[in-house]
Amino acid sequence: MSTDFQRAREALGARLRELRTEAHLTHRELAARLGWAHSKISKLETGKQTASVADLEAWARETEAPEALTELKNSLRRLETQYRSWRRQLAGGHKAVQEAALAEEQRATTIRVYETSVVPGIFQTADYARHLFTHSAQLRRSPRDVEDAVRARLRRQEVLYQRGQKYRVIIWEAALHAVIGDPDVMIGQLDRLAGIIGLDTVSFGILPFSASLDLTPKHGFWIHDERSVVVETLSAEMELKDAEDIALYLRLWDYYDQVALQGPAAHRLLARARHALEVR
């Protein structure tokens, strides 16, 4: 369990304890009112158990604090968003993060990906990934386990050839023109993307610059089945598990999927980006 998640759960428990004590109720008195085991009260207040919405509604009712219910629900909603700082995740280097990502992806049947300015890790060449890991370690001042991280990222790509899994990937055309490394690195990466098109485990689309968009690209995200969304920021990774959040990102992904170019049209965008690099 992540430290950030546990701290948030303990903070919610502390607020529940405040409400109980303000109502002048002991553990056993509140448990009797709620019809719960005495141990459940203790676990919720110490952050050893996560409250449900129904638990919070009952707690607010029996402590005669209905005005606190909205606050409690908001705290639970934030709790369901697991915030994992890169500083903590990268304390041991990038390799461990890649291995954790592989484990998560192996649990999923369908993974939907949208990226705005970078090629997703599951499609990256070794040279492209090496450049990203090197400069990420410099920026975040994390251990430089670049070669181990590259090997771990390439191992993640083995799932592309496993039956039973489906990757549905969309990238904005900007990712084809953002030169990572040097032109030779990018040409190799574009060739890799061209080779991905046609894999039966992958649908790959490119959102073109020319598309007329009602919703503009903002940030990348990964949807694992319909149970979680992972969003990365510069300082942290957030895992969203709230049903409304997941539905929101699914709607956005479906919108981009309708606009994205695939097959021969995607090949033409890759060829155009490759040609621009060759004539530089």
Write the layout of secondary structure elements.
Elements: H1 3-22, H2 27-34, H3 38-45, H4 53-62, H5 69-79, E1 81-85, H6 86-89, H7 94-106, E2 110-115, H8 126-140, H9 146-156, E3 166-172, H10 174-177, H11 183-196, E4 202-207, E5 221-224, E6 228-232, E7 236-240, H12 243-259, H13 263-278
Parallel strand pairs: 2-3, 3-4
Antiparallel strand pairs: 1-7, 2-5, 5-6, 6-7
Question: Short summary of the structure?
Answer:
The chain has 280 residues and is α/β, with parallel strands linked by helices. It contains 13 helices and 7 strands. The chain is elongated, with a radius of gyration of 23 Å.
Chain-averaged pLDDT = 92
Largest sheet report: 7 strands, mixed
What's the CATH architecture name of the largest domain? Answer: 2-Layer Sandwich
Class by alpha and beta content: alpha/beta
Q: What does the radius of gyration come to?
A: 23 Å
What is the helix/strand order?
HHHHHEHHEHHEHHEEEEHH
Summed up, the helix count is: 13
Query: CATH H level of the largest domain: which superfamily?
Result: Endonuclease Chain A
- Which spans have pLDDT < 50 for at least 5 consecutive residues? none
Global shape: elongated
Span from first to last CA?
49 Å
Fraction in beta strands: 5-15%
Strand order of the largest sheet: 1-7-6-5-2-3-4
The total tally of domains equals 2
CATH topology of the largest domain: Endonuclease, Chain A
